[in-house]
């Protein structure tokens, strides 16, 4: 009888220890998942607006998809006074849209093109317990886990919301726990040949020191 009791106690100890280990591993996995923040890579777009006196488009120097530099002359306009006016690009980037054609009449304030800037960004939601790790202009490693070679680039925190955006339900809820307040964080990265808008960008907050 004593042998059986000892055997049962031993089995119970093993089961309890195993359960505690699995629970600890489960909590660790949840913690890791909460620290990995993912967002979609987006391209910043800049509208070019005609800000000179009224005139007529006489020449278009750019096409959709062209790479341009700040100051490049995109359009030439003949003003109503007969002078030729240049319309330059205000940013580096790619021409993603042209909204006018030769012969069109332009008035001040009319949009003429859209430039996709060379800076990309991803918006992440970070819980209040981790937000103190980040500050504006801070450099952070950004991972792109679904690229074949799992690329990493340096990103910069460009903005942090001044107030929580929403409350997120905890992945594990224990008695007395409240939901988490989430802050919107924008991470900017420079574009390169490997990165495309729509890719998944990930920041692991465990890689950032408090």
Ranges where pLDDT stays below 50 over 5 or more residues in a row are: 20-33
Mean pLDDT: 80
Shape: elongated
Work out the helicity level.
10-25%
**Helix-strand pattern:** HEEEEEEEEEEEEEE
Q: What summary fits the major beta sheet?
A: 8 strands, antiparallel
The end-to-end span amounts to: 57 Å
Number of helices: 1
The overall strand count is 14
**Rg for CA atoms:** 28 Å
Structural category is alpha+beta
Quick structural gist:
This protein has one helix at residues 2-35, and strands at 36-40, 42-49, 55-60, 67-68, 73-79, 84-88, 93-98, 105-106, 111-127, 139-144, 151-160, 166-168, 180-190, 200-204. The protein is α+β, with helices and mostly antiparallel strands and 210 residues long.
Features:
210 residues; alpha+beta; 16% helix
Descriptive report:
With 210 residues, the chain is of the alpha+beta class. It contains 1 helix and 14 strands, in the order αββββββββββββββ. The protein has one helix spanning 2-35, and strands at 36-40, 42-49, 55-60, 67-68, 73-79, 84-88, 93-98, 105-106, 111-127, 139-144, 151-160, 166-168, 180-190, 200-204. The strands form 3 sheets. Strands 2, 4, 7, 9, 10, 11, 12 and 13 form an 8-stranded antiparallel beta sheet that branches. A 4-stranded antiparallel beta sheet has the order 6-5-3-8, with no helix packed on it. The chain has a two-stranded antiparallel sheet with strand order 1-14. A hairpin with a 4-residue loop joins β5 (73-79) and β6 (84-88).
């Amino acid at each position: 009888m004593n042998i059986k009791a000892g055997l049962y106690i031993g089995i119970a100890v093993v089961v309890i220890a195993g359960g505690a280990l699995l629970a600890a591993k489960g909590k660790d996995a949840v913690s890791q998942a909460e620290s990995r923040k993912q967002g979609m890579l987006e391209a910043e777009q800049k509208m070019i607006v005609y800000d000179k006196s009224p005139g007529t488009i006489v020449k278009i120097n750019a096409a959709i998809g062209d790479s341009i530099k700040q100051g490049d002359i995109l359009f030439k306009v003949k003003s109503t006074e007969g002078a030729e006016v240049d319309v330059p690009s205000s940013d580096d980037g790619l021409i993603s849209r042209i909204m006018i054609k030769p012969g069109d009449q332009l008035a001040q304030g009319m949009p003429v093109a859209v430039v996709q800037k060379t800076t990309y960004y991803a918006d992440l939601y970070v819980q209040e317990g981790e937000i103190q790790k980040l500050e504006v202009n801070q450099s952070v490693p950004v991972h792109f886990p679904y690229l074949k070679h799992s690329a990493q680039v340096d990103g910069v925190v460009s903005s942090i919301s001044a107030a929580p955006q929403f409350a997120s339900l905890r992945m594990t809820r224990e008695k007395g726990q409240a939901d988490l307040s989430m802050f919107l964080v924008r991470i900017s990265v420079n574009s390169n040949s490997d990165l495309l808008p729509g890719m998944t960008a990930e920041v692991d907050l465990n890689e950032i020191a408090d």
